[in-house]
Amino acid sequence: MSDSIVIIPTYNERENIERIIRKVFSLAEGFHILVVDDGSPDGTGAIVGHLRNEFPDRLFLEERAGKSGLGTAYIHGFRWCIARAYAYIFEMDADFSHNPDDLPRLREACISGADVAIGSRYIKGVNVVNWPMSRVLMSYFASWYVRLITGIAIRDATAGFVCYRREVLETIPLDRIRFVGYAFQIEMKFTAIKYGFRVEEIPIIFTDRTEGVSKMSTRIFREAFFGVIEMKVASWFRKYER
Q1: For residues 6 and 90, what is the distance between their CA atoms, to the nearest angstrom?
Q2: Do the Cβ atoms of 225 and 128 come closer than 8 Å?
Q3: Annotated domain spans of the chain
Q4: 15 vs 220: CA distance, rounded Å
Q5: What 3-state DSSP class applies to 119?
Q6: Sign of the alpha-carbon dihedral angle for 178, 181, 185, 187
Q7: Are 80 and 50 in contact (CB under 8 A)?
Q8: pTM of the prediction?
Q9: Nearest CA to 190 among 227, 165, 140, 215?
Q10: What's the confidence (pLDDT) of residue 212?
Q11: Angstrom distance (rounded) from CA 67 to CA 125
């Protein structure tokens, strides 16, 4: 039984899913993988189901009826992993924008004292490959905006490459996490800090996808922009007790 599991949410990732699974399983640490697929019409779930025959004790699949958002997929995955007592629970994209070779570095950070380890694009300058300048600036200034509004000192607040110690996810009331897009990533980090958990950023190089289609939209961006203010105001009326 591994103590570490990587949650990979998917929607139409047939070009990437087998390669990312095999890459993670090639690592020496023996990670498990949970794929949460939102009814991908391109057959992503069927590919994972076939691979389960090859990796029955390391690869798991949760299939949902339709596209319900990144945040709800991760919360579904968090609950599944908590119930099975994994010590280190990871978020990672399917498209190789997050390098699986960095998973052991995030895990080591949590073993060494961090409660949450973030694969950060901006802790040492801007480490992004293949993004247009407009996208780099939007992401970079989104994190600046989050720091300004919330007061948290995270350089890459929208990062989706994260390792959580199980105790963090057991403490955060997951049923009260409101957001589903990139604002979900901000809300999780903000809430972990409010509960007094130690968050550490680990520098990574982020490489934009070469296969498949990005899920970014203006609706997701609006949710993040206005949601940060709502989240900060709501925090004034909440108690964060462990």
Answers
A1: 5
A2: no
A3: 4-235
A4: 24
A5: strand
A6: negative
A7: no
A8: 0.90
A9: 227
A10: 46
A11: 34
Cβ burial of 139 (10 Å; 0-12, 13-18, 19+) is buried
Euclidean distance between CA atoms 179 and 241, whole angstroms: 22
Which of the four CATH numbers 2.30.110.10, 3.90.550.10, 2.40.50.100, 3.40.50.720 does domain 4-235 have?
Answer: 3.90.550.10
227 closest CA partner among 171, 170, 177: 177
* Rounded Cα gap, residues 58 and 231, in angstroms: 37
Amino acid at residue number 13: E
> Phi, psi (5° rounding) for residue 44?
-55, -45
Which run of H or of E encompasses 81?
Answer: helix 70-83
Going by the DSSP 8-state scheme, the letter that residue 162 receives in this structure is E
Between the alpha carbon of residue 47 and those of residues 8, 169, 183, the distances in Å are: 14, 29, 30
Is residue 7 helix, strand or coil? strand
Instruction: Of 208, 214, 213, 215, give the one whose Cα is nearest residue 99.
Output: 208
Report d(CA 107, CA 163) in Å as an integer: 7
Mean pLDDT, contiguous 10-residue spans, the chain (242 residues): 95 96 96 97 96 97 89 96 98 94 97 97 69 68 84 90 98 92 90 97 80 53 77 90 86
Closest CA to 229 of 197, 183, 177, 195: 183
